[in-house]
Target: Ferredoxin-like protein FixX
Amino acid sequence: LSVEAKLGLDLFHTDEENSHIDVDLECTDEEEIRKLVLACPAECYKYIDGKFSFSYLGCLECGTCRVLSHDKIVKGWKHPHGEIGVSFRQG
Ligand code: SF4
Model:
Protein backbone atom coordinates (compact mmCIF):
# COMPACT_ATOMS: atom_id res chain seq x y z
CA LEU A 1 0.00 0.00 0.00
CA SER A 2 1.10 3.56 -0.64
CA VAL A 3 1.48 5.96 2.28
CA GLU A 4 -1.67 7.76 1.16
CA ALA A 5 -3.61 4.49 1.05
CA LYS A 6 -2.40 3.53 4.52
CA LEU A 7 -3.35 6.94 5.93
CA GLY A 8 -6.75 6.54 4.34
CA LEU A 9 -7.38 3.55 6.61
CA ASP A 10 -6.93 5.57 9.81
CA LEU A 11 -9.91 6.23 12.02
CA PHE A 12 -10.61 9.63 13.53
CA HIS A 13 -12.70 10.25 16.62
CA THR A 14 -12.67 13.99 16.67
CA ASP A 15 -13.72 16.33 19.43
CA GLU A 16 -15.61 18.78 17.22
CA GLU A 17 -15.73 21.46 19.91
CA ASN A 18 -12.24 21.48 21.40
CA SER A 19 -9.05 21.62 19.43
CA HIS A 20 -6.03 19.89 20.95
CA ILE A 21 -3.82 22.44 19.20
CA ASP A 22 -3.94 26.19 19.87
CA VAL A 23 -2.82 28.13 16.79
CA ASP A 24 -2.25 31.88 16.48
CA LEU A 25 -4.11 32.57 13.24
CA GLU A 26 -3.24 36.27 13.50
CA CYS A 27 0.42 35.52 12.81
CA THR A 28 1.73 37.39 9.76
CA ASP A 29 5.21 35.84 9.63
CA GLU A 30 5.01 34.13 6.24
CA GLU A 31 8.23 32.20 6.73
CA GLU A 32 6.92 30.62 9.91
CA ILE A 33 3.54 29.93 8.35
CA ARG A 34 5.05 28.28 5.28
CA LYS A 35 7.14 25.99 7.47
CA LEU A 36 4.00 24.56 8.99
CA VAL A 37 2.15 24.33 5.68
CA LEU A 38 5.03 22.38 4.14
CA ALA A 39 5.73 20.15 7.13
CA CYS A 40 2.27 19.03 8.24
CA PRO A 41 1.66 15.56 6.73
CA ALA A 42 -2.09 15.94 7.15
CA GLU A 43 -2.28 19.37 5.45
CA CYS A 44 -3.98 20.87 8.49
CA TYR A 45 -2.29 24.22 7.81
CA LYS A 46 -3.22 26.23 4.73
CA TYR A 47 -1.90 29.49 3.37
CA ILE A 48 -3.88 30.54 0.32
CA ASP A 49 -3.90 34.04 -1.19
CA GLY A 50 -2.30 35.42 1.94
CA LYS A 51 -4.91 33.88 4.24
CA PHE A 52 -3.66 31.55 6.97
CA SER A 53 -6.03 28.85 8.24
CA PHE A 54 -5.85 25.74 10.36
CA SER A 55 -8.11 22.74 11.00
CA TYR A 56 -7.25 20.12 13.59
CA LEU A 57 -9.66 17.65 11.97
CA GLY A 58 -7.49 14.98 10.40
CA CYS A 59 -4.47 15.76 12.58
CA LEU A 60 -2.17 12.73 12.82
CA GLU A 61 -0.78 13.84 16.21
CA CYS A 62 2.78 13.64 14.93
CA GLY A 63 3.87 16.75 16.85
CA THR A 64 5.87 18.19 13.96
CA CYS A 65 4.15 21.58 14.11
CA ARG A 66 4.80 21.80 17.84
CA VAL A 67 8.53 21.22 17.35
CA LEU A 68 8.85 23.54 14.34
CA SER A 69 6.87 26.42 15.76
CA HIS A 70 8.82 27.02 18.98
CA ASP A 71 5.64 28.65 20.37
CA LYS A 72 5.61 31.27 17.59
CA ILE A 73 2.39 30.05 15.99
CA VAL A 74 1.51 26.89 17.88
CA LYS A 75 0.72 28.23 21.33
CA GLY A 76 -0.46 24.97 22.82
CA TRP A 77 -0.40 21.32 21.87
CA LYS A 78 -1.63 18.26 23.75
CA HIS A 79 -2.80 14.80 22.84
CA PRO A 80 -6.58 14.46 22.70
CA HIS A 81 -8.15 12.80 25.74
CA GLY A 82 -9.35 9.20 25.98
CA GLU A 83 -10.77 7.69 22.82
CA ILE A 84 -10.54 10.98 20.94
CA GLY A 85 -8.03 11.44 18.12
CA VAL A 86 -6.50 9.29 15.43
CA SER A 87 -6.31 5.49 15.48
CA PHE A 88 -3.65 4.16 13.14
CA ARG A 89 -4.59 0.93 11.42
CA GLN A 90 -1.44 0.30 9.38
CA GLY A 91 1.48 0.97 11.70
FE1 SF4 B 1 -0.07 18.40 11.32
FE2 SF4 B 1 1.33 16.76 12.87
FE3 SF4 B 1 0.73 19.24 13.71
FE4 SF4 B 1 -1.18 17.39 13.51
S1 SF4 B 1 0.57 17.36 14.91
S2 SF4 B 1 -1.33 19.51 12.82
S3 SF4 B 1 -0.51 16.23 11.71
S4 SF4 B 1 2.05 18.68 11.97
